[in-house]
Design brief:
The complex is a heterodimer of chains A (740) and B (499).
Chain A: H1 4-14, H2 19-24, H3 30-38, H4 56-61, H5 78-84, H6 101-112, H7 160-171, H8 182-194, H9 200-208, H10 214-224, H11 226-239, H12 257-269, H13 274-283, H14 292-297, H15 313-333, H16 352-359, H17 380-383, E1 401-403, E2 411-414, H18 442-450, H19 458-471, H20 492-504, H21 510-518, H22 531-537, H23 554-565, H24 583-586, H25 620-624, H26 643-651, H27 653-669, H28 673-685, H29 691-711, H30 715-732, H31 734-737
Antiparallel strand pairs in A: 1-2
Chain B: H1 18-24, H2 28-35, E1 80-86, H3 101-105, E2 134-137, E3 142-145, E4 158-165, H4 171-180, H5 190-198, E5 208-211, E6 237-238, H6 257-276, H7 282-304, H8 312-318, H9 326-340, E7 345-350, H10 365-389, E8 396-401, E9 405-410, E10 418-421, E11 425-431, E12 438-440, E13 442-443, E14 450-452, E15 455-456, H11 457-467, E16 477-479, E17 482-484
Parallel strand pairs in B: 1-7, 1-8, 4-12, 4-15, 5-6, 5-7
Antiparallel strand pairs in B: 2-3, 4-11, 8-11, 9-10, 13-14, 16-17
Helix pairs in contact in B: 1-2, 2-7, 6-7, 9-10
Classes of the chains: A mainly alpha (740), B alpha/beta (499).
Amino acid sequence: MIDSRVVVSVCIAISSVAAMALSADFDASVGSLLLTRCVSCHHAGDPSGELDLTRHETLLRGGASGQAITPGNADESLLFQHIASGEMPKEEGGHKDPLLKEEIELFRTWIDTGAHWPEGRVLDLFERTTPRRAGRDWWSLKAVHASPIPSLPGAATANPIDAFISLHLRERGLVPAPKADPRTLLRRLSFDLIGLPPSPLELDEFLADASPNAWEHLVDRLLASPHYGERWARHWLDIARFAETNGYERDAEKPGAWKYRDWVVNAFNSDMPFDRFVREQIAGDEVPDRNESTVIATGFLRIGTWDDEPNDPKEYQYERLEDMVHATSTAFLGLSIKCARCHDHKFDPILHSDYYRFASAFWAGPIGPRASQWLGGPTKEELGFDVLGWTDLSAIPSPLHVLAKGDVSRPLGAVQAGAPMCVAYLQKDFDAPPQGFSTSRRRLQLAEWITDPKHPLTSRVIVNRLWQHHFGEGLVRTPDNFGFLGRKPTHPDLLDWLAHRLVSQGWHLKQLHKLMVMSETYQQSSLHPDALACASVDAENNFVWRANRRRLDAESIRDAMLVTSGQLDLHLGGPSFRAPISDEALEGLSMKSGAYQASPLEASRRRSLYMFTKRGLIVPLMTTFDMCDTTTPTGRRDVSTVALQALVLLNNPWVHQQSRSFAMRILAESKDNSSRIDAAWRLALGYMPDDSQHKAAQEHLAVQRSRIMDRSPDTAEAEILSWTSLCQVLFNTNEFLYVD
Amino acid sequence: MNVSRDPRNQHFPCSITRRECLWDMGAGFAGLALAGLLDHVDHVDHDQFTIQGPNRRANAAELQSTLSPRKPHFHTPVRSVVFLMMNGGPSHVDTFDPKPELIRYAGQPLPSEKKFINSGGRSMGLLTPSVRPFRRYGESGLEISDFYPHLSRHADKLAVIRSCHTDTHAHGSALVQMNTGKPIIGRPSLGSWAVYGLGTENENMPGYVVMLDKRGGPIGGQPNWSSGFMPATFQGTLFRPAGNPILDLSGPASFDRAMQREQLDFLAELNHRHLSSRPGGSELAARAASYELAFRMQAEAPEAVDLSRETMATREAYGVDREPTAEYGRNCLIARRLVERGVRFIQLYSGGGHLEETWDAHESVEKNHGRHAGETDQPIAALLTDLEQRGLLESTLVLWGGEFGRMPFSEGLDKPGRNHNPYGFSMWLAGAGVKGGISYGATDDFGFEAVENRVHVHDLHATILHLMGIDHTRLTYFHQGRDERLTDVYGTVVQDILA
């Protein structure tokens, strides 16, 4: 961020009262102050006090209180009086930040010497970043810079990622953690790439494979697994605010929403280029090679919430626009464009009109009042396929007006449909479609803009999402916000190198996954021999001097239990299953009978990805472990630690069933308790227990057995229950719930 | 006091792994258990937004859990809130907003200049006077209809707002708006904001409890007590009125408490071993500690709904042992016990499911409200009496109301019910911080729309937060580029009802 104060004070130092220098350097002095401290309110459009300070003519014209300046006489100038008295600039966001004395003097000198204003100079609110908000020169809006790979003597730089990471570590005197042990590595890689723990057999094979390519083979195998798509589809579904009902009063099912989910899975598995992935979701109905699959992809625009009984259906159209604008801009651009629905963005260079330019892409769609049987979307005739998708109802929709304060009753001018103007070098108005097209082709043009190889955000945002899921934190730690209020990249050079590489190699994600997990940075331990010293330099582990320890997410916890108990049904795709939900939890539904019918127990052995998500009733096991909200995009889930999670894992009937199945599996493995304990540890935690763990386990079994026998003399059942108890404890251990 | 996730504040030397600071500072396992459970929410004073120095040090106040009690913005006697939620929309002109003019206009249509949405396109009847007489009660002479023979004894405690209005006529969105501020789902509910802002006084209990009507949940379900974009830590916990009040509070019968204790001891042993090879693993320590908290909750939560130690007189006062008051009486009595246990926000639904099972009196106001008021009048009155006698009303705010009101006209000759009315309705507040025996604001002569001192849902929420010691403009949660508030950019505190 450029601090204008620095610029200004330097300027003062150099030329304290030299009027000539000042006028020559308007941009570095008064111009800069006007830009950073005044024009956020006094700009064209709806200037505060009717005083527009962006142009010379309007400055001279003055505002509601009269003439603003008297060139040649600061003391007689209203503008100067307001500044000198401290009245201006006004408090912003509860903070008073008056001008410095030197800055006030700068204004005095400027006015006293004639208030010179360079010919034709128009101050643009967003032309540059100020200490309070971003301009169009904000880091994420500048073109991706193909950073050279640093060459570091003596460092592990075979993988470019390691070269960049080493550079930053060295600069701070940090050294990376040693390589993690093989068990941890395999577990980490397996959860990261396919969302499932490795089997004991896989672990044995990996540990036995001494070849230098063992790790690479493993990476290739997991990336080729169909479960890779399942895992990464789940991350995308968070961002796509995916659920399978509308929400609200009837919370009706969106039929066929699962096909969109399967489309995402297939897209990841087939390594669909990311630009294509974007285009199909935004405009799969408008692409030249449109087919059923590309139309299913537009389900992205359909799966948000939909109120079938809005208070005012005309107003509700604008809520739907916001849903689509927000989902699209957050998912693909990491920008919160929705903030500009009512006014210019407070922190990012997004104009009020930019929101409507962007929203116009969706304006031709079925967002208005229609027969509720179409569930807020097009009919199958309009869509051309009997799937849940999106299309326009007209080629040339009515003009979309900017709404003052977002108020439907206060339309301002109509907007030219187009991309937001925040990327200075990538401006785009949407053209009307050629004759004969039934859609407005605005979404297609929006998608083309987003996937332009020169777009500064799209590649950075997706690369960062990948990084985050592999390393626990993104290079930008606010994956959905690359704007002023987001975090800046910890490694801007690496981020850009990865983004550039993604685009230059055809937008394929798998090669990036591979590059990341092949790096030594990825393979570090989460434990560092000199952790305290490193933490004193970088407590947040911004520079990745060790791996981040991560708790499994809700889906992985459930799936890992199913794998361990031997119950997991791995078949891919198709309609979702409805998980069993206890009667107590169903009491939250207003419609008791028929509102929720659980699938047969057999079906609920499938992966969590296939669990039906009803907006009015998220499965408690999932929401307790921080499954995200389904109404807006989520790029980073919360990770909470609360007592209710312990209650679920201790008491939930489904967890007990899994514990019992796990116990039965162990009991069938061997007749000998010692081998059984080995098997239990290997299955749940991936290693052989040592003597003290054996002893503790034997004691636990004995205590539980005797407690059970006290109540009932059924020895067979006592055997099963005591093992169930042990197995359940293993499910509750930190070792099970954390990757390492 | 403000809690913020504003990434601008995450320059704190150990903000992401603040727990590790605790660990390093020697608080260790026991300290963590005492400090409660931590998650990834950062605690930063709003007033320190601009402080970003890399050398900012941790101070003790910041090293607290997400749920530990926090100081409000300003002093307030209110420690708990009980929200008596009249699901379905009670008719204000038949309960707390007398409209004698309706007698004069009876049988006429609503004047045509009154514009409204006829929710559900139902049949439109003619203006219909209150089905029950109003009388003046207490020293204040506050007018209440005789749907409320018990509550009317507390007239001098009530501040009735007669000028409430909301944005939507449909139950689903109006309920969500009353609970979260906006008629769209996905935002944190009032109780979530309260716990987020103030923490809880008792970590062995959930800080935000919701008790539903046994006939069903409110339309829209979970989003009504969701924490929206905040961590799940702040969501409402559904509480059942008997046995094990919380979902998964107890396991299958085959595992008794002693067996579970053994499981926890074994678990602690395994976790301890794991942790000892991972120095600084404070998130691991916090999770291990959460099991002890869960174990205590298992004892304390059932005790909170165990009414066996309540005297017969108390049970009698609430009507716990007879119909039609048994269910709501029980819930109100549990609410008092939860207040005693330091639960921050308690919401009790009257009415569940749809139509006449709720206050949604389309068929007949007399029949519908007779039933629902009959179920709730005595329990609510008993709750106020009980809280007062125990000195708890001095620290408890009680509020009553539905998601909207009802129309002054019927749905037809044979249908003496009334349709939804978001344009004007009544709610009341009582207890700590509130003036008693007053009415505030007014609807027009018909009770059709709020016309004087209008109070929008945002204003109501601003007032409730204010009563809890929170400035609604300063309680913010940073989400996707924006400091979100319960009241968005709206809301004015209704100063005139504050004591």
